[in-house]
Amino acid sequence: QLQASGGGLVQAGGSLRLSCAASGFTFDDYVIGWFRQAPGKQREGVSCITKSDGSTYYADSVKGRFTISADNDKNTVYLQMNSLKPEDTAEYYCAADPGLYGKSWLGRLLHAYWGQGTQVTVSS
């Protein structure tokens, strides 16, 4: 089970940190990441991290602004979002899959585990 949190309302240029806590399984040998869904827009894979080697991948739209990281002790993955833009407004979901995917994970539509969404709203 995955539990996402940390969303909120922020002004453009601001920052938020999302958290994704896992229970019932450990992140070892998994890819964990975030995707977002805005009303009327296609779902977009945002970022993911491969636990086994720490590799990280980002969508071009967030590269240089978002940073994904993992806390092994807490079995939690974080998404630090800086320089937020109104177009980042969306419901954000975390998800996880066993195995190795690389950046192709960002394009996956089905996941072994996913949590409830957390809303991020960026005002202009």
Molecular structure report:
The protein has 124 residues and is mostly beta strands. 0% of the residues lie in helices and 50% in strands. The chain contains no helices and 11 strands. It has strands at 2-5, 8-11, 16-22, 30-37, 44-50, 56-58, 66-71, 76-81, 90-98, 113-114, 118-123. The strands form 2 sheets. Strands 2, 4, 5, 6, 9, 10 and 11 form a 7-stranded mixed β-sheet that branches. Strands 1-3-8-7 form a 4-stranded antiparallel β-sheet, with no helix packed on it. A hairpin with a 5-residue loop joins β5 and β6. It is globular.
The helix content is under 10%
Give the number of helices.
0
Radius of gyration: 13 Å
Mean pLDDT: 93
Q: Report strand %.
A: over 45%
Q: What is the overall shape? A: globular
- Name the helix and strand elements from N-terminus to C-terminus, one letter apiece: EEEEEEEEEEE
Largest sheet: 7 strands, mixed
**CA(first)-CA(last) distance:** 34 Å
Number of strands: 11
Unreliable stretches:
none
* Helix/strand class: mainly beta
